[in-house]
UniProtKB/TrEMBL annotation:
<dbReference type="GO" id="GO:0015074">
    <property type="term" value="P:DNA integration"/>
</dbReference>
<dbReference type="GO" id="GO:0006310">
    <property type="term" value="P:DNA recombination"/>
</dbReference>
<dbReference type="InterPro" id="IPR013762">
    <property type="entry name" value="Integrase-like_cat_sf"/>
</dbReference>
<dbReference type="Pfam" id="PF17293">
    <property type="entry name" value="Arm-DNA-bind_5"/>
</dbReference>
<dbReference type="GO" id="GO:0003677">
    <property type="term" value="F:DNA binding"/>
</dbReference>
<feature type="coiled-coil region">
    <location>
        <begin position="59"/>
        <end position="86"/>
    </location>
</feature>
<dbReference type="InterPro" id="IPR011010">
    <property type="entry name" value="DNA_brk_join_enz"/>
</dbReference>
<protein>
    <submittedName>
        <fullName>Site-specific recombinase XerD</fullName>
    </submittedName>
</protein>
<dbReference type="InterPro" id="IPR050090">
    <property type="entry name" value="Tyrosine_recombinase_XerCD"/>
</dbReference>
<keyword id="KW-0238">DNA-binding</keyword>
<keyword id="KW-0233">DNA recombination</keyword>
<feature type="domain" description="Tyr recombinase">
    <location>
        <begin position="220"/>
        <end position="414"/>
    </location>
</feature>
<dbReference type="Pfam" id="PF13102">
    <property type="entry name" value="Phage_int_SAM_5"/>
</dbReference>
<dbReference type="InterPro" id="IPR010998">
    <property type="entry name" value="Integrase_recombinase_N"/>
</dbReference>
<dbReference type="InterPro" id="IPR025269">
    <property type="entry name" value="SAM-like_dom"/>
</dbReference>
<keyword id="KW-0175">Coiled coil</keyword>
<comment type="similarity">
    <text>Belongs to the 'phage' integrase family.</text>
</comment>
């Protein structure tokens, strides 16, 4: 055991009530590093009161309020030791968060969701935090629908295999897709895993896995424009500056290996080196200890887009989508709004040119992959270009290979 917990009377500083704070003293020694932290108990005592109640040198039988304070301090000390013992490796920040929560929080779904949301927000993962909020809201709606308590009291024990099957049925009946069900239940599974890792719940209540609830998996065909449609969109005349800007950024993504809008928005001039620029994909950066740098070679087209929309001072971010002075939450909202703006105007161009009406900015990424395949690129090349961590992810693009190409291939089989 690397830690020691005790009740401590902070007599170095007297308070306005002429008493001193009673605190939890935690001494931790780990890898030859010694640290001491103090946590308030909310109890103030004089020296005489502390000696009588806690040190009790004469072993007196306490009564009344003194007895209540003694029992309260013993309960706090016991809880502190219990929480410390539950951690495989003692950590002050985790210990503090557990010490001051309600005893019921360890089994409470909403508490663990809010903890995850707070963690992702503090790590500037605003989109991930928002995804957790959507899941929590959906679970709250289902809990109200069942008319058995509320999300405030929903515990891990309540969420059984039958509960999840009923939730899935509720979602489908309310016109939600199996894809959405999969996203929300996978997020819930992460919350279960977090609670188990924190030793807040037993693995016995885990409702996912073999012979338990199976999270629905769907293979969504990636939407992409074929070669003819790409040529049509590229040559389409924009009816105003907004449409032109939307088209320019759409094709900048396409010509930059399907670069995500967030990565475009956060691209810096310091990322450039002569005829190329490099960046780390924001979406996957924290998912792997091995960071993969993506290199994009400039073309006449991509260079012209940078010249047209780039920051003329040539410092900080290349494009004026977000600014360096903004916090991550403001940047997230601006990128989301810019994505909505591009999608709105791309759809207008698509409609005017008999292209798929649901064409969006993300189609640029899929179109890059699909048309690279059509030109003979290997799965490994596509996987590296898109910065996929798993070839199975890349296979989805091959599965969505345009029907025209499949027909051409089938008709060519007898061309000996």
């Amino acid at each position: 055991m690397t830690y020691n917990i005790s009740i401590y009377h902070e007599t170095r500083r007297i308070k306005e009530n002429d008493k001193y704070s009673v605190k939890i003293r935690v001494y931790n020694k780990h890898e030859n590093i010694k640290k001491v932290r103090y946590f308030t108990t909310g109890i103030d005592l004089t020296k005489k009161e502390f000696d009588t109640i806690w040190l009790n040198p004469e072993n007196k039988k306490l009564r009344g309020s003194n007895k209540e304070i003694e029992l309260k301090l013993k309960a706090i000390e016991k809880r502190a030791n219990d929480e410390a013992r539950a951690m495989s490796v003692f950590d002050f920040s985790k210990f503090e968060s557990k010490l001051f929560r309600k005893s019921s929080d360890k089994n409470n779904i909403k508490y663990h969701f809010n903890s995850a949301i707070g963690k992702h927000t503090s790590n500037s993962k605003i989109g991930t935090a928002e995804s957790y909020r959507y899941t929590l809201s959906s679970l709250a709606n289902f809990t109200e629908y069942k008319k058995k308590g509320s999300i405030e009291r929903l515990s891990f024990n309540d969420i059984t295999v039958d509960w999840l099957k009923e939730y899935e049925k509720y979602m489908i009946v309310n016109n939600k897709s199996y894809t959405t069900v999969g996203i929300y239940t996978r997020t819930l599974r992460v919350i279960f895993n977090n609670a188990i890792e924190e030793n807040d719940i037993s693995v016995d209540v885990y409702p996912f896995g073999k012979n338990k609830y199976k999270i629905p998996r769907t293979r969504k065909v990636k939407k992409a424009l074929n070669a003819i449609q790409l040529k049509t969109l590229f040559e389409a005349k924009a009816s105003n500056e907004n449409e032109q800007q939307a088209k320019d950024f759409w094709f900048f993504s396409y010509a930059s290996n399907g670069m995500n809008l967030k990565d475009i928005a956060l691209l810096r001039y310091s990322d450039f080196d002569n005829d190329k620029f490099t960046y780390y994909r924001a979406k996957t950066f924290d998912k792997s200890s091995e960071k993969t740098e993506i290199t994009i070679y400039l073309t006449d087209f991509t260079s012209s887009i940078i010249e047209k929309y780039g920051n003329k001072k040539k410092d900080g971010f290349v494009f004026k989508i977000v600014s360096m002075s903004e916090d991550s939450e403001t940047q997230y909202k601006k990128i989301k709004n810019f994505n909505r703006y591009i999608n709105d105007h791309i759809k207008r161009i698509a409609k005017a040119n008999d292209l798929p009406s649901d064409c969006s900015f993300y189609w640029a990424r899929h179109s890059f992959a699909t048309n690279s395949i059509r030109k003979g690129a290997t799965m490994e090349f596509i996987s590296e270009a898109l910065n996929h961590s798993d070839l199975n992810v890349t296979k989805n693009y091959f599965a969505g290979f345009e029907d025209v190409a499949k027909k051409e291939f089938a008709n060519s089989l007898l061309d000996f």
